[in-house]
Design a protein that fits this description.
The protein is an alpha/beta fold. Helix content is 24%, strand content 25%. The chain has 10 helices and 26 strands.
């Protein structure tokens, strides 16, 4: 089979914002404790954070990190996590039926994000708290000194303010599972009041209002409209959340999950622009896709959940999906969707970072390793620079049960006008057949060299694990070549490929 793509550096979608390559750390399972933080580990620094995890996070290329939740934040008291560790209270976390020790809080996490060269994105509790709590944590974090809360931070050993620019106004407030679950009208009013207060304190912050927790919610669309009508003048982003898994062994539909993400984004953009028109506004609301991933939610059923009223474990093993090659190919396709919408999706957070549905896994006292999903993220973060391009893709198609007729080859590309480099990211969704992909690069001028990295395995269910941590990885694709002014590469079935074209 054959497919072709026309690449024109003058046909741009929008600039690729580095915030697109964000991630997410929630106080959930072993994401924090035994994940990023394990004081007894051989690689731990003086603050208790694992050095091997720091190295992998840097390699992953994460730009922003959303914290501390997630569902966790709707019951969180931020002040429990600051000050002397020996004085911090242990609390019950109702979201994940666990005990929170508060050994790691805002100050420690802010310092850790600086260590991994990432920007901290902080979520405030609008579930069980509200305006005053949001103002307090903002003052503690961002005011230099001279007030009770800023001086408290200084006394806690952090003389410089954390300078957090991006703030989430709660989490998934449309979800019945959420502490403080709300109607769109009530949440919109609370979010608007909170946003106005926070801007009075620090006018330079970026604010994210909660959109639907998934496009499958019965209130999807109407929730966005109502919330944005209440908050449009006060916020900068509306959030999207989406997770994907195969249903009943339907891998053809699973491999086309990015089609659903495309439709989700387009629907939210249309709703936001409808509100913009209603308000006669010159302002455009962008999307923060601050939870996305492959997640086998069906595995986390009522049998697996902790419900015993007397059992509240510390850092239990929860949601530790082991990702396969096919999962990573779907994951890479989701990255393609985000790049394709770079004009409106200007922030995103892979959920999550370590152990919990994560690209990085750890064993207490033992090694850390890369899951299959690590590789598409790291390569895309490294190569995607400049502007996202609008591509003309000609590909064979096939029918899927969930998404209808879809292209077998999906792709996105970026071009860096300063260096002349072009990156192309492509997936082959076919379960059985390779595809020869031809890139028309005449508009780029001279292409001097091309290199290609492909994620593929003859066993699409192959994984990396504690006992086989390097079973799957990226391999050089020797078929990539410049031929008569075109770039040609063979994409194996169920594969994700990154090409780097240099002038």
């Amino acid at each position: 089979m054959h497919a072709s793509i026309v690449i024109d550096p003058n046909s741009t979608v929008g600039s690729v914002n580095r915030r697109l390559f964000g991630s997410f750390v929630e106080h959930l399972g072993r994401c924090v404790y035994d994940g990023i933080y394990e004081p007894g580990h051989p690689t731990a620094d003086e603050h208790g954070f694992r050095g091997d995890v720091v190295e992998l996070v840097r390699e992953l290329g994460v730009s922003t990190i959303r914290y501390p939740g997630g569902n966790f934040v709707s019951g969180y008291r931020w002040e429990d996590g600051v000050g002397p560790r020996e004085q911090r209270p242990r609390r019950l976390d109702l979201a994940w039926h666990s005990t929170e020790t508060n050994e790691v809080g805002l100050d420690e996490f802010a310092a850790w994000t600086a260590t991994v060269d990432a920007e901290l994105m902080y979520a405030v509790n609008l579930g069980t708290r509200g305006v005053l709590d949001a103002l307090d944590v903002l003052e503690y974090a961002n005011i230099r000194s001279g007030t009770a809360l800023s001086d408290q931070r200084v006394a806690n050993g952090f003389a410089e303010p954390h300078g957090i620019r991006m703030w989430c106004l709660g989490n998934e407030m449309d979800g019945p599972w959420q502490l403080g679950h709300s109607t769109a009208e009530n949440y919109g009013a609370l979010a608007a009041k909170t946003a106005r207060g926070m801007r009075q304190l620090d006018p330079d912050i970026d604010l994210v209002v909660c959109g639907s927790s998934g496009s499958q919610m019965s209130t999807f669309g109407e929730w966005e409209r109502v919330v944005l009508e209440a908050t449009y003048d006060e916020v900068d982003y509306i959030s999207c959340h989406a997770y994907y898994e195969p249903k009943d062994g339907d891998y053809a539909s699973f491999l086309a999950s990015a089609v659903d993400m495309d439709r989700f984004i387009d629907a939210v953009v249309a709703t936001a622009d409808h509100v913009k028109a209603l308000k006669r506004s010159d302002k455009t609301i962008d999307i923060s896709f601050d939870e996305w991933n492959v997640w086998y939610q069906s595995r986390y059923n009522d049998v697996d959940k902790i419900t015993d009223v007397d059992q509240w474990p510390v850092a239990p093993r929860l949601l530790e999906d082991e990702y396969s090659v096919v999962d990573a190919v779907v994951f890479g396709g989701l990255l393609i969707s985000l790049l394709r919408h770079a004009d409106r999706v200007t922030a995103a957070s892979l959920a999550q970072l370590v152990n919990v549905i994560a690209p990085i896994m750890t064993e207490p006292g033992g090694p850390a390793w890369r899951q299959t999903t690590f590789f598409p993220f790291a390569a895309t973060s490294r190569l995607a620079r400049g502007a996202s391009l609008a591509l003309r893709v000609d590909s064979p198609t096939h029918d899927t049960a969930l998404h209808g007729e879809v292209r077998l080859v999906d792709a996105a590309a970026t071009h860096d006008a300063q260096t002349g480099s072009t990156a192309v990211f492509a997936v082959n969704r076919s379960l059985t057949e390779p595809v020869e992909l031809e890139l028309d690069v005449l508009a780029l001028g001279h292409v001097g060299s091309v290199s290609a990295l492909t994620l593929h395995d003859d066993d699409m269910h192959a994984t990396n694990s504690l006992h086989a941590p390097e079973r799957v990885g990226l391999s050089q694709n020797p078929t990539a070549r410049v031929l008569d002014g075109k770039v040609v590469v063979t994409l194996p079935p169920v594969s994700w490929t990154a090409l780097n074209l240099e002038p």
